[in-house]
């Protein structure tokens, strides 16, 4: 398109120059020019002003610059950062498949005073599979399946995590000046292991919450062209999680011990994330997520049970954690991207101090 504009501009300028030369020649050969000036002011008023050579040269130079920039510009491809989703929904009839692989080390824990205290490393291997289908151009549905393997010293366990189903509803479609916005309603099902743990390896047996948790989320995203040669994307997501009560027995995800039996009321939680992507060129993108999670305390009613003859603690304190997730994206095409990076905590309270390596492949067809 830019090249056509440049050629059109060149054609117009060339035509004007030819017309001006022709008019000058006709004026010099006309009878009035031979017989002396006649009605000079009227003739000049009817002629358009002739641009100077400096103006013509300036316009040509600018057109050439625009043409060179246009040759370097491209339609940006994005696979998304590691944490924050897009404000757009999947178009009707398209399917997205996105397997993940997480490897996490919980090497410490933040205490009540936000100090990181070392613990024996808990190594977590966590493959995930996300599937989504576009129902209409404004609605898609998806599922997320987890498998979790945990190990500390010689003890290990593995089990499914909680499965999540979600529906996305597009509220605003992205335009050159307006960001895309979508609303998400998701439900988490307690398919993970959350109670009746083996006392000798209770630390590594928890892979779920035991709760049906409803998530309400708003996500927005926008491609911006502050740099014509390096477009970028800004994303923001707010998630509010409302869990149901959980019946627990024995050692469980909320504490417990021998003889524990009762109900836990998990606290509501929210999760904020900000995502940023920077196009180095069409296939290579740098990404960063900043995430903050807060969960209210969980309470327990029932029989606490015992550990080493003392009442077993059941329930958790309120907690929060701030984390970063830098990544690199490589886009093989508009529909196929490979993303790899890290996710690690930098500040928290009553939460794990962790570091994760993540790699994911996303494909839309």
Keywords for this structure?
single chain, 365 residues, alpha+beta, Porin, 2 domains, 12-stranded antiparallel beta barrel, 3-stranded antiparallel β-sheet, 4 helices, 18 strands, elongated
Give the secondary structure arrangement, pairings included:
Blueprint: H1 2-29, H2 31-34, H3 40-46, H4 53-72, E1 95-110, E2 116-134, E3 139-152, E4 155-160, E5 163-172, E6 180-189, E7 213-224, E8 232-243, E9 246-249, E10 261-265, E11 269-279, E12 284-295, E13 299-303, E14 306-307, E15 310-311, E16 319-333, E17 336-349, E18 351-364
Antiparallel strand pairs: 1-2, 1-18, 2-3, 3-4, 3-5, 5-6, 6-7, 7-8, 8-11, 9-10, 10-13, 11-12, 12-16, 14-15, 16-17, 17-18
Mind explaining what this structure looks like?
With 365 residues, the chain is of the alpha+beta class. It folds into 2 domains: 2-72; 95-364, Porin, CATH 2.40.160. The protein is built from 4 helices and 18 strands. The protein is elongated.
In short:
By secondary structure, this protein is of the alpha+beta class. Helices cover 16% and strands 50% of the residues. The chain starts with a helix and ends with a strand.
The spatial strand order of the largest sheet comes to: 1-2-3-5-6-7-8-11-12-16-17-18
Mean pLDDT: 88
**CATH A-level architecture of the largest domain:** Beta Barrel
Spatial shape? elongated
CATH topology grouping of the largest domain = Porin
Overall CATH class of the largest domain: Mainly Beta
């Amino acid at each position: 398109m830019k090249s056509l504009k440049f050629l059109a501009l060149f054609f117009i300028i060339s035509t004007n120059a030819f017309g001006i030369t022709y008019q000058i020649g006709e004026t010099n050969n006309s009878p009035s020019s031979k017989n002396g000036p006649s009605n000079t002011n009227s003739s000049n008023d009817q002629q358009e002003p002739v641009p100077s050579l400096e103006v013509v040269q300036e316009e040509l130079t600018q057109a050439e610059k625009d043409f060179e920039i246009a040759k370097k510009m491209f339609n940006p491809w994005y696979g998304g950062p590691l944490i924050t989703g897009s404000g757009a929904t999947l178009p009707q009839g398209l399917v997205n498949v996105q397997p993940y692989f997480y490897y996490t080390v919980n090497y410490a824990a933040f205490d009540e005073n936000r100090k990181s205290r070392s613990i024996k490393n808990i190594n977590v291997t966590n493959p995930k599979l996300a599937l989504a289908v576009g129902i209409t151009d404004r609605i898609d549905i998806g599922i997320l399946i987890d498998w979790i393997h945990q190990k500390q010293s010689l003890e290990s366990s593995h089990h499914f995590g909680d499965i999540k189903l979600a529906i996305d509803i597009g509220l605003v479609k992205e335009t050159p000046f307006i960001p895309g916005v979508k609303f998400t309603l998701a439900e988490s099902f307690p398919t993970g292991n959350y109670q009746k743990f083996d006392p000798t390896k209770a630390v590594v047996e928890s892979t779920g919450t035991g709760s049906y948790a409803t998530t309400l989320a708003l996500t927005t995203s926008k491609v911006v062209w502050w740099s014509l040669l390096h477009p970028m994307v800004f994303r923001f997501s707010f998630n509010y999680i409302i869990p149901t009560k959980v019946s627990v027995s024995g050692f469980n995800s909320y504490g417990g011990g021998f003889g524990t039996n009762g109900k836990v009321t998990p606290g509501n939680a929210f999760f904020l994330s900000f995502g940023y992507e920077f196009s180095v060129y069409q296939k290579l993108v740098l990404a960063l997520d900043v995430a903050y999670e807060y969960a209210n305390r969980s309470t327990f009613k029932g029989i606490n049970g015992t550990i080493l003859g003392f009442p077993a603690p059941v329930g958790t304190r309120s907690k929060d954690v701030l984390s970063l997730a830098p990544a690199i994206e490589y886009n093989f095409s508009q529909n196929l991207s490979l993303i790899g990076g890290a996710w690690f905590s930098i500040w928290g309270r009553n939460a794990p101090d962790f570091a994760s390596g993540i790699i994911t492949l996303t494909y839309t067809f």
